[in-house]
Amino acid sequence: MCGVYDAPPDLTLALAELARHTRARGWWRPYGQAILDVLSIYTALEDAAIALTGYAPGQVPPLLRTEAYARTVISSTGLGSGEVDRLVYECMTRRARITRASAPVSVTVSLDEALLNRPVGGPAVMAGQLRYLADLAAQPNVSLRIVPYRAGCHPGLVTGAFTLLEFRPAQRDGDTDTGIVYASGLTGELYLDKPHELQHYRGAHATILGCALEESATQALLMTAAKELEQ
To answer: What is the pLDDT of residues 84-112, one digit of tens each?
Structure first.
């Protein structure tokens, strides 16, 4: 199928690896010793995606992290210093997909307000992260929206953190849905691609966005939270 649809080599390899594990274990990929290999599957998919949509309740998504924030989060997993350095470097490399001059990926992310009040790495690191988010939000291909506490109950409380990756459809009759939902946990990662699954997540995120602040209000809140941390 990748050959028929002229998929890029990296995406072809990533999907082939997922297919191999689907036959054995389903779409749940457990983390083993080769954690970097597991992550490379997602990063290949991310690199091929034309749009990313997601919800982040507890942590800033990897693609949007500063180096200091990323190092704090990755170090908390208990990995060795060498692996931490490699993963931080990979995280910083991935950020270029948002800011590159040619066809930057479109990003729409809803952030829970609780994330702003969790000073990962301490006040200085978190303030830098919030300012970075505010700067990113000014980019034409990036939409960040904060879901305030007052939103109350919303679908994100059920879905947890997730990313919906959208890919360019092939110019053929009978094209099928080109999305994949990704979610990661302590022991592995989950990929969902069935039409009804994608429909549920798209609907959930649309409802989450309906509860969120507008983009301008989000940027203002990010800057306010950063200033409070710097006091």
So the answer is: 998 899 899 989 999 888 889 999 999 99
Element (H, E) at 8: none
Strand partners, 106: 51
Q: Is residue 23 helix, strand or coil? A: helix
- Residue 33 lies inside a defined structural domain of this protein: yes
Taking the model in full, what pTM does it have? 0.81
- Here the CATH number for the domain that contains residue 166 is 3.30.870
Residues 6+ apart with CB under 8 A from 213: 145, 146, 147, 148, 221
The reply to whether 53 falls in a domain is yes
- Looking at the domain assignment, is residue 121 inside a domain? yes
Residue appearing with tokens 């040619």: 102
Contact 64, 171 (CB under 8 A): no
What is residue 182's three-state secondary structure? strand
The amino acid present at 208, given as its one-letter code, is I
In the chain, the number of structural domains is 1
Write the single-letter amino acid at 16.
Answer: A
Q: What is the residue range of 188's domain?
A: 9-61+105-230
- Gap between the Cα atoms of 222 and 220, Å rounded: 5
- φ, ψ for residue 97 (rounded to 5)? -65, -25
Least confident of 144-148, 151-155, 184-188: 184-188
Pinpoint the alpha helices (H) of the chain.
9-25, 35-48, 67-75, 81-94, 96-99, 113-116, 123-137, 156-159, 195-211, 215-230
Residue at 78 is within a domain? no
